[in-house]
Design a protein that fits this description.
The chain is about 35% helix and about 30% strand. It is of the alpha+beta class.
Length: about 180
């Protein structure tokens, strides 16, 4: 039940001004969403779906093996490891290979509009303590890519709760840009 509450909280956070360019004034949430381009709205939707899947995987198995999502029109497909668990590469190695695979898909399949990659990641907080969370990069062919980090913070009872999402633009897109070639 607690996890359901965290998901409801997550949906509220994802629906906010997550990936919009910063504005000077405060607009109601619906108005900010309306100001976003259709591409940015699609990126928000794909990120929300992937983060939801990542949190469900963490809840079920206690971990997360990196996976990707690709979207062509309204069709979303998962890209991930499908072999035996004992044959799987370490998560960091698989994430690097998955990044290359997604780039290849973007190059070979021009109908793919959006791509995202999701994995567990650990950062240092302001106190120098390690914080693990869900890391995602979301990219659209026509819009600058974004990275999202959703920390899983331990509370006083030792249980994990969703922290505040962090969003930032990245210079390492999933889609190859002309300047990359």
């Amino acid at each position: 039940m607690r996890f359901l509450g965290m998901l409801v909280c997550l949906f509220g956070l994802c629906a906010g001004p997550a990936m919009a360019e910063e504005s000077t004034g405060k607009a109601p949430q619906g108005a900010e969403q309306a100001q976003k381009s259709l591409e940015q709205q699609a990126m928000d939707k794909l990120a929300e779906a992937g983060i939801r899947q990542a949190l469900q995987a963490i809840q079920r198995s206690g971990g997360l093996y990196p996976f990707g999502l690709i979207q062509s029109g309204e069709t979303v497909q998962a890209v991930g490891y499908s072999g035996k668990k004992e044959d799987a590469l370490p998560a960091d190695e698989w994430a690097k290979g998955l990044f290359v695979k997604l780039r290849q898909i973007g190059k070979e399949q021009p109908e793919v509009d959006l791509m995202a990659i999701f994995r567990l990641h650990t950062i240092k907080d302001d106190k120098g303590e390690s914080v693990q969370g869900v890391w995602a990069e979301v990219d659209h062919r026509d819009v600058r890519p974004w990275v999202i980090f959703l920390p899983l913070v331990k509370n006083e009872e030792g249980k994990h709760e969703l922290g505040e999402m962090v969003y930032y633009a990245t210079e390492q897109p999933l889609f190859e840009r002309e300047e990359d070639q």
